[in-house]
């Protein structure tokens, strides 16, 4: 039997690229020879764990040490070394480290920070001001729903909210902050409120100046994955339909890999006519992006075991 | 490494801005740009140049992003002027899939392979920059090392109106250097800091050395993404981004002094007043084409 060419591509190109681009401090940058950052390190580690056979234990141990060493005193993680304020990558770190045996204290502190971090635009006094503002009709969203921002003290957006939801969903009750349930309910409602008319999500502006926003692949995929436990809900179906229809428009490895992950997660068939990762790689080599190589590896790692909340603690990294 | 010292505008020599009439993207843009750039005697020999187009979203029709034909022509011109390397870089603000955007505009078809020449500024290595101007409350920003490290920075926006800032030209285009990997998509921290003030801080930290505005096909109304295409038939270029933006406003039938950030930029970043801008090429009057603006910005109009 012929090997799956897409799986071969991951084994021949993506995984060696990931192993080759690990920095001496254990982390990964967004590109080869760039400085280690939390976000690409999380994705590289997740990809190596899910797709490499056997997982490279020594490389992964160094990666986890980099992540633990990057945590700030308040429990959060910064986007780049030297930055003194944590941000949305805290969700990615917590989600990854939940399955790592030496990180429970780090994760608990990270989740505490996450649940303390409220977006500023929906603070009660701001909501009163916004009701009086003439600008309100230009960008109509329900501001009683609250998710997470990219950085503290800003507004709720789709991607950081999705990652926070995924992270909290995977956490056991032992490490969950007391308000985690309330945060999840508000954030879930926020995501549905921000869906674009007709399905899919963009960064979080479903309508501006009366014009419907156009959905984008990346936020649509992460919102759908955060909301995947309600697959029969009309909004999920409409958004999956949009994602499926959009497949023929995809021009990048990142969007293709994420679409595949999402279709697999929802049990939808991957069309034979879809573009291939290898073809897209040959155009621009994914612009050398480590994260895209990691997403591609995850896309071809089979049913989304790494997204299964119940499986994570048992399958300790 | 570029000289970052800010010079008060009253100490700056007059600026030069060239306006060229261009019917469409099929014209010989290389020749037009080469002829226009020759006026400036630009110090780019053996230097690294970064072209910073405006890439905001998926744009198969070529109406919201700087057209790749203009980018490719500029790249070729700077190479002919002796630049050692000409990079192209941007960090789209609303969508993290930069590769999808550059593919949707067919940049590769015009410039050749992107690996090695295109820099996704959203995921570049970053360096902490203390913002000396304190126009906003940001105090500091992490900015891409590529932007801070090149010798010559060229802002290459599209001629567009903007639903929050009034207009988006060579100064507003510099929002794209703020890395999404640090600040997200959109770069919401800049909106919280105040768009107009953040534009000033960013441009003071990384002032473009030159600006080339793609006004061949512009956008009016609800820009920068959902506006209406506006065939304007001009390229505007110059050695002072404020003067270039002021000229663009005048072409668009808008009063640059009424654009909040442009008015403030005139103190430190460049010239706004017509008597300090040497206008070359076509006359302003001959290419003037009023742009529609949203109701919130109707006071910007010059009539």
Explain how this protein is built.
By secondary structure, chain A is mainly α. Helix content of chain A is 50%, strand content 1%. Chain A has helices at 5-20, 38-51, 57-70, 89-97, 104-116, 124-132, 158-170, 180-193, 217-226, 234-246, 253-265, 277-284, 290-299, 311-314; strands at 207-208, 211-212. In chain A, a hairpin with a 2-residue loop joins strand 1 (207-208) and strand 2 (211-212). In chain A, helix 4 runs antiparallel to helix 5 (104-116) and helix 9 runs antiparallel to helix 10 (234-246). The longest helix of chain A has 16 residues, at 5-20. The two termini of chain A are 32 Å apart. Chain B is of the alpha/beta class. Chain B is built from 11 helices and 12 strands. In chain B, the strands form 2 sheets. In chain B, strands 1, 2, 3, 4, 7, 8, 9, 10, 11 and 12 form a 10-stranded mixed β-sheet that branches. In chain B, strands 5-6 form a two-stranded antiparallel sheet. In chain B, helix 1 (29-37) crosses helix 2. The longest helix of chain B is centred in the N-terminal third of the chain and has 13 residues, at 68-80. Chain B is globular, with a radius of gyration of 17 Å. The mean pLDDT of chain B is 96. At the A-B interface, helix 11 of A face helix 3, helix 6 and helix 7 of B.
Assign a percent range to the helix content of chain B: 25-40%
Beginning-to-end CA distance, first to last residue of chain B: 44 Å
Distance between the termini of chain A: 32 Å
Low-pLDDT residue spans of chain A:
310-317
The computed structural class of chain B is alpha/beta
**Molecular shape of chain A:** globular
The beta-strand count of chain A equals 2
Helix count, DSSP H or I runs of 4 or more residues of chain B: 11
The general outline of chain B is globular
Biggest β-sheet strands, sense, barrel of chain B? 10 strands, mixed
How many helical elements of chain A?
A: 14
Structural class of chain A: mainly alpha
How many strand segments of chain B?
A: 12
Radius of gyration of chain B: 17 Å
Spans of chain B with pLDDT under 50 lasting ≥5 residues? none
């Amino acid at each position: 039997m012929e090997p799956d060419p897409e799986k071969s591509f991951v084994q021949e190109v993506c995984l060696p690229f990931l192993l080759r681009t690990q920095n001496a401090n254990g982390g990964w940058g967004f590109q080869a020879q760039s400085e280690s950052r939390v976000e690409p390190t999380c994705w590289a580690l997740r990809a190596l764990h899910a797709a490499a056979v056997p997982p490279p234990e020594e490389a992964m141990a160094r990666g986890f040490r980099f992540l633990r060493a990057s945590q700030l005193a308040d429990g959060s993680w910064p986007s780049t070394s030297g930055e003194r304020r944590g941000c949305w990558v805290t969700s990615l770190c917590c989600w990854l480290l939940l399955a790592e045996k030496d990180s429970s204290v780090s994760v608990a502190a990270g989740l505490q920070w996450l649940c303390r971090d409220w977006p500023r635009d929906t603070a009660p006094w701001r909501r009163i001001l916004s009701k009086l503002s003439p600008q309100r009709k230009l960008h109509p969203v329900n501001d009683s729903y609250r998710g997470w921002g990219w950085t503290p003290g800003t507004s709720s957006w789709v991607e950081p909210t999705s990652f926070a939801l995924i992270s909290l969903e995977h956490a056991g009750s032992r490490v969950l902050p007391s308000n985690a349930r309330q945060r999840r309910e508000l954030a879930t409602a926020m995501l549905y409120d921000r869906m674009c008319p007709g399905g899919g999500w963009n960064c979080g502006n479903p309508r501006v100046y009366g014009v419907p926003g156009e959905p984008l692949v990346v936020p649509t995929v992460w919102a759908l994955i955060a909301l995947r436990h309600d697959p029969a809900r009309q909004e999920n179906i409409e958004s999956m339909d949009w994602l499926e229809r959009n497949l023929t428009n995809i021009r990048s490895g990142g969007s293709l890999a994420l679409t595949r992950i999402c279709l697999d997660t929802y049990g939808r068939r991957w069309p034979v006519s879809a573009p291939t990762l290898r073809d897209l790689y040959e155009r621009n080599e994914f612009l050398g992006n480590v994260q895209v190589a990691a997403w591609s590896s995850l896309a071809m790692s089979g049913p989304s075991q790494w997204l299964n909340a119940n499986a994570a603690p048992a399958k300790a990294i | 490494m570029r000289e970052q010292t800010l010079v008060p505008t009253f100490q700056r020599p007059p600026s030069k801005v060239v306006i060229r009439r261009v019917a469409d993207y099929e014209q010989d843009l290389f020749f037009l740009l080469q002829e226009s750039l020759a006026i400036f005697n630009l110090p780019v020999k053996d230097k690294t140049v970064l072209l910073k187009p405006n890439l905001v979203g998926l744009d198969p029709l070529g109406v919201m992003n700087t057209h790749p034909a203009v980018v490719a022509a500029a790249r070729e011109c700077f190479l002919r002027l002796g630049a050692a390397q000409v990079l192209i870089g941007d960090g789209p603000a609303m969508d993290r899939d930069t590769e999808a955007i550059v593919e949707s505009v067919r940049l590769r078809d015009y410039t050749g392979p992107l690996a090695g020449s295109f820099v996704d500024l959203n995921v570049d290595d970053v360096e902490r920059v203390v913002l000396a101007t304190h126009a906003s409350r940001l105090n500091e920003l992490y900015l891409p090392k590529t932007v801070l490290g090149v010798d010559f920075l060229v802002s290459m926006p599209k001629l567009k109106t903007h639903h929050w800032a009034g207009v988006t030209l060579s100064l507003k285009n510099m929002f794209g250097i703020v890395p999404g990997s640090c600040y997200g998509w959109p770069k919401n921290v800049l909106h919280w800091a105040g768009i107009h003030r953040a534009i000033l801080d960013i441009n003071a930290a990384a002032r473009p050395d030159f600006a080339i505005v793609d006004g061949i096909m512009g956008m009016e109304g609800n820009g920068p993404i959902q506006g209406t295409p506006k065939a304007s038939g001009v390229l505007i270029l110059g050695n002072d981004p404020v003067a270039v933006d002021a000229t663009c406003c005048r072409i668009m039938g808008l009063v640059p002094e009424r654009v909040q950030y442009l008015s403030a930029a005139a103190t430190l970043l460049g010239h706004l007043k017509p008597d300090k801008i040497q206008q070359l090429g076509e006359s302003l009057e001959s290419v003037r084409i009023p742009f529609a603006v949203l109701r919130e910005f109707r006071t910007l109009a010059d009539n």
